[in-house]
Every structure is written in C-alpha cells, then in structure tokens.
Automatic annotation (TrEMBL):
Entry keyword Transcription: yes
Classification via SMART domains: HTH_DEOR
GO molecular function: DNA binding; DNA-binding transcription factor activity
Pfam family, one: WYL
Keyword DNA-binding applies: yes
Record PROSITE patterns: HTH_DEOR_1, HTH_DEOR_2, WYL
Domain HTH deoR-type: 2-60
Lineage of producing organism: Bacteria, Bacillati, Bacillota, Clostridia, Lachnospirales
Record keywords, A-Z: DNA-binding, Transcription, Transcription regulation
The protein's name in its UniProt record: Putative DNA-binding transcriptional regulator YafY
InterPro entries: CBASS_pafABC_assoc_protein (IPR051534), DeoR_HTH (IPR001034), HTH_11 (IPR013196), PafC-like (IPR028349), Tscrpt_reg_HTH_DeoR_CS (IPR018356), WCX_dom (IPR057727), WH-like_DNA-bd_sf (IPR036388), WH_DNA-bd_sf (IPR036390)
Amino acid sequence: MKSDRMFGILCILLERENVTVRELAGYFEVSTRTIHRDLLDLSASGFPVVTRQGVGGGVSLLPNFRYNKSALSEDDMKVILAGIEGLATIDDSARMKTLLAKLRFSDGNRLLLENDIILDFTSWNQNSSFLSRIGMLRRAIAGHFIVEMGYCSPSGTVTRRVEPYKLIFKQETWYLLAFCLLRQEFRMFRLSRITDLEVSDSVFDERRDYEIPSMESHFVNGGGQAVTVKMDHSLEFLAIDFFGRENLVYRENDIVVTFLTGRPEWVLSTFSGFGNKAEILAPDSLRQEMIHYLEQMAALY
C-alpha cells in the first residue's frame, strides 16, 4: 500500500544521510516516477525532503530534522515482539533473526524486558515435516507458484493442484487457503493432512475476488444441530477445553452443556472415547446413532 511505502521511505531517510531515487525504486519494486510522487506527498505532509540533482545527488532530510520514531510504546513493542518471536519458531532465516535483534532494543539501546507472552507454532512431533511444508508454502505464496499435493480427506487421499494464498493459524491448527483448480473455488486445507507437497514452476495470476473465511467452530455454538451432553466431573478439564467454562452447567453429579454442531460425527467419535464418563442426552436421534456406532465398534472385538 502507498501509505506503507511512504512510511518505509521515511524510515530509510531517517537511517541514511543520502539515497537515490533509483535505489528506493529498486527496494520497493516500483517505478522512479512512483517514488517521486511519494516524495512530493511526504513534503506536502510536512517532512523536509530535499532532492539534489547531478553527481553525488539524491534524496535526504534536512540535517536538523528530528522525528520521534517511538510512535509505539514499550508495551506496544512487546506485543509486536511476541508476534515476531512466534513467527521465528517456524522461520529461522537470518532476516527474521536480524529483525528480532532490532526489536529487542528500545530507542535508548536498552534491552527490552523478557516478554510475558511466548508463542510457539512448532509441532509436538519432533519428526514432523511441518516446518518444511510451511517454508515451501510461504515461498509458493510469495512467488505465486501453483502447488501440487496429496490431501487426506474422509473420502481418501486425493491429488490436488492449487493456487496458494494464505497460511492461517486457528487455535491449534494450521490451514492453507488456496484456490482448488479441480473444484474451481477457494478451499481450506489442513496442513497436517497435506502429503507429497511440490511447488511447481507454473505461475498463476493472483485472484482478487476472495475473502478470508470466518473459521467458525464445528461444535461450539457455531450453528447446526443442537446437542446436549453430560460429562463426569473428572472430565471437567476437557469440557472447559471444548466448550469454555462459561457454557457449562454444573450439577451435583455431572456437568451439562448444550451446543450447536454441524458435525454430529465429531460428537460420536469424541464422546464414545469417554466411556461411561459421558452421555449424549439429546437429541434422541443422535443417541440412536451412538448406539449403532458402539455396536459397530463392539463387532470388531
């Protein structure tokens, strides 16, 4: 965006005594004419931009100009630092390390205090190929390269060719927002289900007519079928994880919660694993499905 580029130009001018228009155009990947317009807009906004022609010429700010770069408070910087540190858990590039080093110091060259928030996006599975997949997809998104991949779904593993757009982290799961060339629509793919990932040399033209999905939950008041369950007090920690304490009704012998779900199969698979510590109370149709589900399980043994 233009405002971001203008702020970036200002930051460069504050750090360097002199820079050429061609250098700025190359850095921001725009034309020299665009840079000249940005410089005029900066001047119109009150910043003393000086341009000099000829040998040794370039763009600079008046020598006596001072600008308080601390538009962000130390608390603001700590929030930003927490986010960058989280990204650093999946990106160990030199650029990220340099950025972290810069952010850790305040304007007075005083090391910022240890952050009280730590974000770690890495997998518990130390043998996971998760980090390499993240890196490949980020490169594909940046370069607009079509991705070929296997995807494990309830109907089996299928091959997909997609145009990748965004990596999205929701609660504890990473997703890829991509345009599926087979289905001809935008879809969400769980990274954990992606296999045989390959970034092709084919470049796609970015589509503009899409929105980031709302990512509503499948089972907590997100719409769909109303379900009421009861859970033993020994499962309170799971009830809180699933539904939130504010949605629970505590009774003497159990905990009751009513929620909406668009995935009743999730209820069956999850609550069957709780044995006699949990029970579906309503609707009766789901109770009958649970009986059939358990009978099928019992037949295996």
